[in-house]
Amino acid sequence: MSDRMRIVGFCCSHGAYSSADLAGVMRISYSPSVMIIRVPCAGRIDVLHILRAFRDGADAVFVAGCLEGNCHFEYGNFEARKMVEHAKRLLSDIGIEAERVEMFNVASNQAWRFPEIVGEMVSRVDKLGLSPLKKVIK
Amino acid sequence: MEGGISLTQVLVIGAGPAGIAAALNLARRGFFSTVVEKGPSIGGRASELCCKGVDECIRCDVCLSMDKIGDLVQSDHVRIMTNTEVIRVSGRPGAFRATLKRHEQLVNEDACVGCGACAEVCPVVGSAIGPCSMSGAPRTFRIDREKCIGLKNGDCQKCVDVCPTSAIALSSKSSRRQLVVGAIIAANGYEPFDPSREPRYGSVTCKDVVSAVEIEKSIFRTGRILVPSSGKTPKRVAIIQCVGSRDDRFGTSYCSKVCCKYALKTGQLLKRQDPETEVSFFFMDWRPYDLVDNELAEWAAAEKRVSLIRSRPAEVLDSESGKPLLRFASSDDERVIEQEFDLVMLSVGMLPPRDASGLSKTLGLRVTDQGFLQERRPGVFPAGCCSGPKDIAESVRDGISAAGKVASFLEGLH
Amino acid sequence: MTPEVHLRKGDELISLVTSTRPARPGSRRLRSVAEDKGDRIGVFICRCGGAVSRTVDVDSVAAHAASLNSVAFVKVMEFPCSAGGRAEILEDIREKNLGRFVVAGCSPRTHEKIFRALAAKAGLNQSMFEIANIREQCAFVHVPSEATAKAKVLIESTASKCNLLLPAPYEQIPLSSRKALVVGSGLSAVVAASHVSDQGFGVILVDPRGTSNEGEANSIKAGESVELFDKTLQRLKSNPLVRMLSGSKVIEFEGHPGDFRALIQTPDGEEDIRCGAAILAFDASPTHAAEDRDRREITQAEFGSLLGSRVVKMENIVMIVSDNSSEETVGRGNYVDAVASSLRLKELLPSADVTIIGSEARMYGLHELDHIRAQERGVRFIRPKGEVDIKHEGGLRVLVTDASSDAALSLPADLVVRSDVLRFEDAKKVASVFKIPINARGFFVESEVRLEPGSTLNRGVFLCGSAAGPRLVSEELLGASTAASQAVSLLASPFIEAGGTVAEVDPEKCSVCLNCIRICPYTAPFINEESKAEIDIQTCQGCGICVGICPSKAIQMYGYTDAQLFSQASASLRGGGT
To answer: Which chain A residues contact residue C523 at CB under 8 A?
Structure first.
């Protein structure tokens, strides 16, 4: 396994994914370590997706849904937040820093926001170092 | 079809929230629309505004049009023509013949793929060529005529040479085309009040006095509200309401409806950005066109350093320190107070669109004393802000409603 | 934010959705035929006229894609989305016998529909393709060295997801009825009904209060709207497209957009009707003041009927405008109403002395012009400081302190007019029949999908009227027109599309825990006759919330199964080669 930083971002198609597209249009660059996985709604995310991503070598994982009160599926973003909170507890139970996983809310037209989120997660990994699981997986 | 009557073709003028909503609603019914947009981009003025929410949606509705642009460009029932104006309409209701003028295609919209190679070679500071829209639709680039040196002296051809799709032609000419449509929706939007028309507020002389439109642009780019002269977070901000609204001197005796709403949301964003920021609102009556209308008072009471001053400031001066100095009559007594701020935001109002009177003649619409458009003849329907100040949600409703009126009208021709 | 009460969240209502209903015959597990072409994936990489290829080394990316096990064919193209490009892909799919494909280029947000149509044209199921966003999310934001590496990973992870795609169900369902059901007794209802019929569609107007029968307009607001109500009602009565059921109410409502069934209780018994869409057009109505009050203190609605009778003799009128969001009132029209009636009074009786007391002159937009007109005609406006008192001894006197001058005033009044107290009483019952959530203040809740104003969580049911939120009369009219337009655009569509990225339950794994039923925003899951959860594909909107919540992992979602997402994430972490 290489020691490159890899961050998985599960992005809601309506909010965060659009924000990332718009950042592209505006040519606001961000770290290439982020890997965007498009989901129809942040509510699609299960705690398993977050845990599996760490097992597969992610240094950090974030879930990004629409702003609270503006979910295209009414409350999918709230369900996502619960999943993220749950994942944080499970991770800290096994000794992985809870800061490695985070929930964000992004609106489709906030071009600046997506790069900011990526910057935030990258700086967390910079501080914490690469995932301790990286050593044990091949 | 009888006597050249077109029962399925509709002309929509303006690609803002109202025009987009109308075209999409018509498409669902099987009508074909040609959306003609004078400017280079889709989304209208709403695409120049920005979401002011952080984590929680605060119902500014700016994302509305943005979210539907993708549907609009992918619809096979909608043809979009940017940089195009309607210059003549003849014929009769049900069979209008519209003449469209497509402006010079300095950048050919069909060929440009928005790669950005041109912007990299442009020798002009800040580049004279760039994306035509902040919304990302269409994805083409445009040339700023004021800045381009190639247009002025003909020497510079750098962008023309580098363009991989040969989309740029500095000697392009405008073109015309005709269209037969059954009905027309005029959704040509509004014009924000230009604060330089009110010299007393110093927006020309003082760099840190800016209109709310400029503030929106700053939020769009950076997500922050900053002091233009220093680039720092402001510590003391004045928000002045009714600039160009409820003011007979400018022929705008009406209320612009949206300013209280957006000013409050901007104020809340300032406090979220830095809770230490002092925010002072200057207003005559507080009338947010929103669900909760005493939100300002409740929020101001709960927050520290938010003051509500019922006063229309007399003027904004340049103080010795270079900061804007506000002079206003106290709301408690008649005392004149002078106070320094880091940033003054002018909550500019909405004027009728600049082309309202021209378009009203072309289309046969009525113009009110305030300059807004009203229905006059069958088959031509105004929608959105061109018929009076509206927020984005109301404009969308109005656009959908206009689509229904078009359907009723065409149904009546059967 | 006021916490919103979601109707279906209540346990007592679980019974409502768990009642057994049969699956729609023939609708489930219908797979498209043209799927078994093996795992042959074609990858089409877009240069985008240089927009991608000037940052991403597409040839090296293509070589990487070709090295992937699952990929059978790779091609670098100038513009896959152009007509020529699509024709080329079509030919390649047929010639190379490809079963699914990846397009690496623009964002799916702008190009998904184009390639979905292409897949269908190629005889594949519409969902058998994936887009790798190497333009907006790669070429535009990364430097060339990084962009090429990232594009490789993006294509690899997208291909690994593509490899696991399942043909999704797609259906085009004909509408069984193209009529709209409009429910309500006020201005919004008659205006919405007239808009629908003007657009050439049939209307069944169910009028619970029977105002359409008696021609009584007492339920609506004061002012010119009474005239508009009467005029519109007369037009509806002579319209053959409109059927009116007066004094009736809807007691059952079920079905899908384009195919609803409503059971209506009419004075002559129960009637079963079919409709394609429904509009709930309830207006909150002004309540009458208590019987034992002073007769000289009335509401704006009562003052309105007084003005309507055109015999007004009172000289001194004081109007007290309550704050719009005070507990007992709804509607932002309090100030607008007061100014409008003051103007009408001044027209009838120019000598009248009118004072309007209100804390904020909420005269939105062009209503401000009325404010100015009233000032010109001599209406006095006072912003109060502290409480406003009324002295009842002898003639009425209103005691108020003017906030701007601090002067204590005592105004003689022949009549004191207060803002209407608006109530909407039937919300709960109607909401449960139509499965629409209501909020804490008793209003219907619109869907949060903001560019579809008037729509609700129950697709095909639209809202207008002041029962859907505070409204001025002008807003009620606009709302009615919008809801009618929304409903007609549904009724006019050639068919209803269902399916796509929808969720499906594996009955073998389902433990009937009801979690999906509780969590779904749209009441799509139900318990079928085999006592297992089943998801109605016509109702499912494809959010996937139920998939994550299901403890038995019995639910999967087309286009976003766990396996697909795991594989995509895993490949994006490990992929990219050297």
So the answer is: none
